[in-house]
UniProtKB/TrEMBL annotation:
Transmembrane segments: 45-64
Protein name: Peptidase S33 tripeptidyl aminopeptidase-like C-terminal domain-containing protein
Highest taxon, organism lineage: Eukaryota
Sorted UniProt keywords: Hydrolase, Membrane, Transmembrane, Transmembrane helix
One matching Pfam family: Abhydrolase_4
Species this chain originates from: Ceriporiopsis subvermispora (strain B) (White-rot fungus)
Gene3D superfamilies membership: alpha/beta hydrolase
GO molecular function terms attached to this record: hydrolase activity
Length: 626
């Protein structure tokens, strides 16, 4: 076999089965196409064609309640026409085709491979067409290889392909050099086709939501007056109208293709890819952070018999995600946010003015919080003009509160957060407005909504008053960031979603798995709290272990810990779980204050530096440019 060619399923490839193609995207780059032997597909077709016909004849969606077999097997691979063709020219006969070529993007690491695999657009309707799943791979460095680990950095909207090609060597430091690291862009996202393209260009979508509640969020009076409630209800009506309009645009420009972007379809793709890369009996290994933990929960409960080594880090509640409307999520989502905010303020005070721009001599954490809150609340009454920003505008309560929440996710960016807010408090909001506009630009279309709304159980449009009252209740009882979460995590409006997916998974979530999974949760994660990790652990008591990292931030990677990394590496290497009740501490501090622990070995220092580099790539591919 020629180097760089991916073998599919279990039949060895012979030279006649592989052809090298010149990739039209760049001179000197070769595309490798893997052919899957006809006899394997014919055998599966005989076994499963009857079920495939049943699904093909069914036009109703599948409300999925447990593991089942899905009929992708009857599709034949490409066998004659091996020329490069654009996506729109692929047909059902091409399903199973895999292309690989050397990555050459500005963020791609040496030795990484880019590619795609063609899969059924609809696993229950053979006539629907083809999806092209974008791939990135960093090959195992030691032999014998233990197979592949699929990775997803979250979002929904983060690029798994870029995560693998931009951080493959770093991921191997944590997962192990004996694994291929394979990232993929889920349905509708980045390079996977069809893309979610509701608006003609990213600029068109940014223009659509500019200066509206989709961008500005809600302005909440510090004392929750009756008149402010009426104002919030008007804002909610505007937000409802905007989401209804944007989804109507989606339906107009994308039509039925919107149906195929849900998480259940992504699990089917993982199943298909695992078989294509490793064979029908191979177990599926996976690492997922943030939304990737929702994908991981779907994966292990839809395919419990295929679970290999699975780690989910920064756990979101998939039960609520699939069964409750968005405005009822925040009581759980924000249950640790105030803890994170207190840690930010106390760490700033401890670091002092030399390391935290918000701090003054002899400050306490309460002093920092008071200064921040006075500024943010003041914007409710008097927004700040910012003429010198990259996109001149104004700072409002809603914008500042949302950005503060977003920046709590990444503790190692807290010095920049403090600097930006300190400048704004002193009258110059340029850096702060530039920073929050950069994060907003990540959500440049509706790929996230295409996932969350296809996953969400359909619900009738709620009264705006009911939504506002729920958010006010969360604000008073749980966290001051309730309204900010609506725009920081844009999942609102699914009551207007115009299509029905072919499959929506709604549990059960408590299957006995082939192998136990590892759950990692921070004690003060501001958006995927530890209570969600404990929930998954309680649903899978014999099939999971919870590893706690005693730190703030969203996912353990955002404040690196050698202890956590070593437990994760041991799990992937040997299947060894941490002891029950294990708690890890981070090895760095948010504001760069020196740790008092013993000096690190050279190996540990290298690992810590790799974790910090991995953190930056994770933040970028997760959609948080910090």
């Amino acid at each position: 076999m020629k180097p760089g060619v991916e073998q599919s399923l279990h039949t060895p490839l012979e030279p006649k089965d592989v052809e090298e193609l010149r990739d039209p995207r760049g001179a000197g780059t070769y595309v490798f196409l893997t052919r899957i032997w006809e006899r394997q597909w014919a055998r599966r077709m005989l076994l499963l064609a009857g079920f495939g016909l049943l699904y093909a004849l069914s036009s109703s969606p599948t409300w999925y309640h447990g593991p089942t077999e899905v009929m992708f097997h009857p599709y034949f691979p490409v066998k004659d026409d091996l020329r490069y063709r654009p996506y729109e020219n692929f047909t059902l006969a091409d399903i199973g085709t895999i292309h690989w070529w050397r990555c050459d993007g500005p963020l791609d690491q040496p030795g990484t491979e880019c590619g795609y695999i063609l899969v059924p657009l609809d696993y229950f309707n053979q006539s629907a067409g083809v999806a092209q799943i974008a791939l990135g791979k960093y090959k195992a460095k030691t032999q014998p290889s233990k197979g592949s680990v699929f990775v997803n950095p979250g979002g929904p909207g983060g690029s798994g392909k870029l995560f693998a090609t931009g951080a493959g060597p770093l991921l191997q430091r944590v997962i192990g050099p004996e694994y291929d690291i394979i990232g993929f862009d889920p349905r509708g996202i980045h390079d996977t086709l069809p893309q979610t393209e509701c608006f003609p260009t990213p600029a068109d979508y940014l223009a659509f939501k500019a200066h509206t509640p989709l961008e500005r969020g809600y302005d909440v009076h510090p004392n929750f007056t009756a008149s402010n409630r009426a104002q919030l209800v008007r804002t909610q009506r505007e937000l409802d109208a905007l989401t209804e309009a944007q989804f109507a645009v989606c339906e107009k420009n994308m039509g039925h293709l919107l149906r195929y972007m849900g998480t259940a379809s992504v699990v089917r793709d993982i199943d298909f890819m695992a078989t294509a890369f490793g064979g029908e009996d191979v177990l599926i290994n996976f690492w997922g952070g943030s939304y990737g933990t929702i994908l991981g929960q779907y994966l292990v409960n839809m395919l419990p018999h295929r679970v290999g080594r699975v780690v989910i880090d920064g756990v979101a509640d998939a039960v609520a995600w699939s069964s409750e409307p968005y405005y009822k999520w925040y009581r759980e989502w924000l249950s640790s946010t105030e803890d994170t905010y207190r840690i930010f303020a106390s760490e700033c005070a401890e670091a002092g003015p030399a390391l935290c721009a918000l701090a003054e001599a002899d400050d306490t954490g309460a002093d920092i919080t008071s200064r921040m809150e006075s500024f943010v609340d003041g914007l409710y009454f008097e927004p700040m003009p910012v003429p010198d920003a990259d996109e001149p505008g104004m700072l409002t309560y809603g914008l500042a509160r949302r950005h503060l929440l977003e920046m709590l996710y990444t503790p190692l960016a807290w010095p920049r957060l403090a600097e930006n807010f300190a400048q704004a408090i002193n009258g110059n909001g340029t850096a702060l407005l530039n920073a929050l506009q950069l994060v907003s630009s990540y959500f440049n279309d509706l790929a996230r909504s295409a996932v969350s709304c296809n996953d969400n159980e359909p619900f009738a449009p709620p009264d705006p008053e009911a939504v506002v009252d729920e958010l006010l209740g969360v604000t008073k009882e749980v966290s001051r960031f309730a309204f900010a979460a609506v725009t920081a995590e844009p999942d609102a409006g699914c009551q207007y979603w115009p299509v029905t997916p072919p499959e929506r998974f709604d549990g059960p979530w408590n299957h006995t798995l082939k192998n136990p999974i590892l759950i990692v949760s921070n004690t003060a994660d501001p958006i995927t709290p530890i209570v969600s990790g404990r929930l998954v652990n309680s649903l899978l008591p014999q099939s999971s272990r919870l590893l706690v990292q005693d730190s703030p931030g969203h996912c353990s990677l955002n404040l690196p810990s050698l202890c956590t990394a070593k437990y994760v590496k041991s799990y992937y290497r040997d299947g060894e779980l941490p002891p029950e009740g294990a708690v890890c501490k981070p090895d760095v501090t948010p504001f760069g204050a020196p740790k008092t622990s013993a000096a690190l070995t050279a190996e540990d220092q290298e690992m810590l530096e790799a974790l910090e580099s991995l953190r930056r790539t994770f933040a970028m591919t997760n959609g948080r440019y910090f």
